[in-house]
Amino acid sequence: MALSVIGCKTKIGGKGAGKQDITAESVKIQIPQFSADSAYAFVEKQVSFGPRVPGSQAQMDCSAWLAGKFRSYGASVTIQEASVKVFDGKSLPMKNIIARYQPEKSNRILLMAHWDSRPFADQDPDPAKHNSPISGANDGASGSAVLLEIARGLQTLPTTLGIDLILFDVEDYGAPSDRDNGGKPEYWCLGSQYWAKNPHIQGYFARFGILLDMVGAPNAEFSMEEVSRNYAQSVLDKVWQAGNNLGYGKYFIYSKTNPLIDDHLFINQIIGIPSIDIIQYDVTTESSFGSFWHTQADNMSNISRETLAVAGKTVLRVIYDEK
Ligand code: AHN
Ligand code: ZN
């Protein structure tokens, strides 16, 4: 366990203060270790199942693996299963993976990622590839891997608040960009929309939520995205402050960027948990998400151990500081 310890023991009272030595312990905050290698291996493992497209064998295999991994780290795990209707009218199986720590506590923090992979590489420079699925190493697997590695730490050291980790399915089944309904918000984030309307516990609430999406690319920049700013400015401030305090100012930048349709939007709108998105936003590329976004190049060659660790250590710091 890495102890990040601030503080000391202070003796209160000098000579004649009485028989007892009163020992006051000042703030002593421990956070578990976050292994960049372990997080990287979790990305690799997910990618090894093949594209985790809804309805595929990879979806079945990878969901079982993810749930088993959370269980092995001491979480109470459920898979929320339903059938959801995608943009072309097809009904597909959805599997949201829910891992809970200290479920008896009423004050909670919600950590989220999506774990499915997009069925169409519709941004690939090669049009012949537009209908084949992506590996989704960054888009999907990276956020899930960071949450798994956080879970590995949660088992070793309890937080003051209860923690829920949810891996949403069917985030990335939005209509391809060249279709009529391309870009329509309601076709994205079907797993989070479903959960927000049917949370695993009736009346579920959390103090705040943090979504991790595309947190694995080398030199990623996480900006202050508009939905996050509108619904959860104080959460954004807390997370950016933690990242900058840890020396990750190159990653957590203080620039304001446009609103995104992502799982946090529906969590804010439908269930009202103030939630932010930690998401790579690269204004220098056309998509804003890096040149490999929704292409066949979203594979292990674009995954950086350092970026995964930056995201993970920052979130750990935030959840262990929360009282
Ligand atoms: C859209 O482009 C619609 N949403 C950005 C969020 C996203 C897509 N995350 C992963 N894939
Ligand atoms: Zn995507």
The helix content, as a percent range, equals 25-40%
Tell me which CATH architecture applies here.
3-Layer(aba) Sandwich
CATH superfamily: Zn peptidases
- CATH-derived topology: Aminopeptidase
Major sheet: arrangement of strands: 3-4-6-5-7-10
**Straight-line N-to-C gap:** 21 Å
Radius of gyration: 20 Å
The secondary structure category is: alpha/beta
Count every helix, treating DSSP H or I runs of 4 or more residues as helices.
7
Report the principal-axis shape.
Answer: globular
Mean pLDDT: 92
Write the layout of secondary structure elements.
Blueprint: E1 9-12, E2 22-25, H1 36-48, H2 57-72, E3 76-85, E4 91-101, E5 108-114, H3 137-154, E6 162-168, H4 190-197, E7 208-213, E8 222-225, H5 226-245, E9 252-257, H6 263-271, E10 275-279, H7 305-321
Parallel strand pairs: 5-6, 5-7, 7-10, 8-9
Antiparallel strand pairs: 1-2, 3-4, 4-6
Helix pairs in contact: 1-3, 1-7, 3-7, 4-6, 5-7
Provide a concise account of the structure shown.
The protein is of the alpha/beta class and 323 residues long.
Describe the overall structure.
The structure is a single chain. By secondary structure, the protein is of the alpha/beta class. It has a single domain, classed as Aminopeptidase. 31% of the residues lie in helices and 20% in strands. It has helices at 36-48, 57-72, 137-154, 190-197, 226-245, 263-271, 305-321, and strands at residues 9-12, 22-25, 76-85, 91-101, 108-114, 162-168, 208-213, 222-225, 252-257, 275-279. The protein has a 6-stranded mixed β-sheet, with helices on both faces. Helix 1 crosses helix 7. The protein binds N-[2-(1H-imidazol-4-yl)ethyl]acetamide and zinc ion. Zinc ion binds at residues 118, 139, 172, 294.
